[in-house]
Amino acid sequence: MPEPVLSLRGLDAFYGDFQALYGVDMEVAEGEVLAIIGANGAGKTTLMRSVSGLLRNAGPQVVYRGREIGALRADQVAALGIALVPEGRQLFPSLSVEENLIIGGRVGRKGPWSLEAVFRLFPILEERRSVPSTSLSGGQQQMVAIGRALMANPDLILFDEISLGLAPVVINQIYDQLPGIVGEGMSAVIVEQDISKALAVSGRVCCLQEGRVSLEGRSDEVSREAISHAYFGS
Ligand code: ATP
Fold first, then answer.
1. Where in this chain does the record put each ABC transporter domain (predicted)?
2. CA distances from residue 181 to 157, 159, 178, 225 in whole angstroms, order as listed
């Protein structure tokens, strides 16, 4: 068995005294797309923040390519090749589309993703490269957030609810690009509220319930009943 790109080994996460994750075990294999589903407050965003260094924890519980990264800062994690497309996009509002993208390139590594490559993926961003990111539609802003993450040339990309608040046609447009994004060698973790979507785009799925893994399996094998049980606990 090749070494997983990412392993979570009994990951606990806290906000002060409040525990949001309890002993989460999870692995992401090379080239795999893992979907994380779960109800509001289940801990999905906390998991993404723990991996990307935004929420720092004990250390040995997050292992990336054999290296413990749980105690690293977000910029150190990015430099190793993990990029986050955060919930709510979090673009720099006073900067142009192009400037937002260029900032993504500053924290990462050298590789195939450049401004030109992002513009090939999302041509509308080239047309709008000079305008402030806030003047874009929600879908276009999401494209900037994805492009910004790609500019860091990650080999593990984390998508936190990229469909949130977007029209179905725009969501499809973004997901249609996924194979081109998660190309050779890149692995992905996707947090997605839409279960059908999550199953369609992933190889494996993991459900969180109140901070614990309640289901884990191949996306083409898990039953709707099992998901419903894992999701709601009923
Ligand atoms: P959603 O789909 O609503 O984004 P989620 O599965 O991503 O939910 P998290 O945002 O990870 O869930 O939240 C997990 C738990 O941690 C929730 O009970 C939430 O209230 C709590 N929590 C999240 N952020 C904080 C914070 N900054 N301070 C305290 N508690 C928090």
1. 6-233
2. 9, 12, 5, 31
User: For residue 210, with 0-12 CB atoms within 10 Å meaning exposed, 13-18 middle and 19 or more buried, which class applies?
Assistant: middle
Q: Would the CB of 18 count as within 6 Å of ligand 1?
A: yes
Give the separation between CA 63 and CA 173, rounded to whole angstroms: 33
Tokens 């390139």 found at: 105
Tell me, using a 6 A CB cutoff, whether residue 45 lines ligand 1: yes
Which atom of ligand 1 is found nearest the CA of 208? Answer: 6
As a residue count, the chain comes to 234
The finding on whether 128 has its CB within 6 A of some atom of ligand 1 is: no
Running along the chain, 234 residues long, what does each successive block of 10 average in pLDDT? 88 93 95 94 95 80 92 91 89 91 85 91 93 91 92 94 85 84 85 91 95 95 90 77
Q: Is the CB–ligand 1 distance for residue 15 below 6 Å?
A: yes
Rounded to two decimals, what is the model's pTM?
A: 0.92
Which ligand 1 atom is at minimum distance from the Cα of 193? 2
Q: What domains are defined for the chain?
A: 6-232 (3.40.50.300)
Q: Which of 71, 157, 56, 48 is nearest to 113 (CA)?
A: 157
Residue type for position 86? P
Q: Which atom of ligand 1 is nearest to the CA of 38?
A: 6
Q: Which of 17, 46, 163 to mutate to test the pocket of ligand 1 (most atoms within 8 A of CB)?
A: 46
Alpha-carbon gap, residue 105 to 149, rounded angstroms: 8
